[in-house]
Write a structure and sequence with these properties.
By secondary structure, this protein is of the alpha/beta class. The protein has a single domain, classed as Rossmann fold. It is about 25% helix and about 30% strand. The chain has five helices and eight strands. Strand 7, helix 4 (about 155-160) and strand 8 form a beta-alpha-beta unit. The longest helix has 18 residues, at about 175-195.
C-alpha cells in the first residue's frame, strides 16, 4: 500500500485518508465489471461506455449477453473508503482483447485484481487470468451470478479454471452491494495475508 508523506496539512486533516490502494476489476467482455464498480463506488463512477455498433459486430461476441447495447472503451473508475485510514481506488478494464494495451498501463501501481467470471462462459476467463498472472498481480476470482445461472461448486470452478489452492473464489451478484463487497473483501484479505 502506498502511504502519503506527512505534511503540515496533516495537523489540520487528522481524519484524512492516509493509505490508498489501487485495485483492478477485470474480466472478459460483458461479465459485469462496469456494474460492479457502479455498485461499489461511493462517488458517481467514471464510465467510458459507448454504444455498440455494427462495426464491432464481427469482433464482439454477444452470445449470452442479453440486451447489451454499450461497451467500455477505456476504463471505469470508482472509489470506496474502507476506513478513515484506507481507501480503495477501483479501476475497471475493458474486456475485449483489442484493449490489452490499456490493461498494461492500468496494472502499474495496482496491488491486486478481482477477476469477474461468468459461470456460463468460463473459457473466456482463461485469457484474462493469463494476463493478470503475466503482470504478476495477485488476484481473487468472483463468480458473477446472473439471473438464472446455476450455482457451481467451488471445487468444480477451481478445477475448471486451474486455480492454485490459495486463490480465493467467491460468488457475487455485481448488482448487489453486499455480495459485491464480500467479493472485494476476499481480495483485500488475501492481499493482507500475502504481506504478512
Amino acid at each position: 500500500m502506498v502511504s502519503r508523506p506527512a505534511s503540515d496539512e496533516d495537523v489540520y486533516l487528522d481524519d484524512a485518508v492516509q493509505i490508498a490502494a489501487k485495485i483492478l476489476v477485470v474480466g472478459h467482455f460483458a461479465v459485469g465489471k462496469t456494474t460492479f464498480i457502479g455498485t461499489m463506488s461511493e462517488i458517481p463512477p467514471l464510465r467510458t461506455e459507448e454504444r455498440m455498433t455494427q462495426a464491432g459486430a464481427h469482433v464482439d461476441d454477444l452470445m449470452g449477453t442479453r440486451g447489451k447495447t454499450t461497451t467500455t472503451v477505456a476504463m471505469d473508475f470508482g472509489r470506496l473508503t474502507l476506513s478513515e485510514r484506507l481507501v480503495l481506488y477501483l479501476f475497471g478494464t475493458p474486456g475485449q482483447e483489442r484493449f490489452v494495451q490499456v490493461w498494461e498501463d492500468m496494472t502499474r501501481g495496482a496491488l491486486g485484481a478481482l477477476i469477474l467470471v461468468d459461470p456460463e462462459r468460463l473459457k473466456e476467463s482463461f485469457p484474462v487470468i493469463d494476463l493478470v498472472e503475466q503482470y504478476g498481480l495477485p488476484y481473487a476470482i468472483s463468480v458473477n451470478h446472473f439471473d438464472g445461472t446455476p450455482v457451481r461448486p467451488d471445487a468444480e470452478l477451481r478445477e475448471a479454471l486451474d486455480l492454485l489452492p490459495e486463490t480465493p473464489v467467491v460468488t457475487c451478484d455485481a448488482r448487489d452491494e453486499k455480495s459485491s463487497a464480500n467479493a472485494l473483501m476476499a481480495l483485500v484479505r488475501y492481499l493482507q495475508e500475502r504481506t504478512r
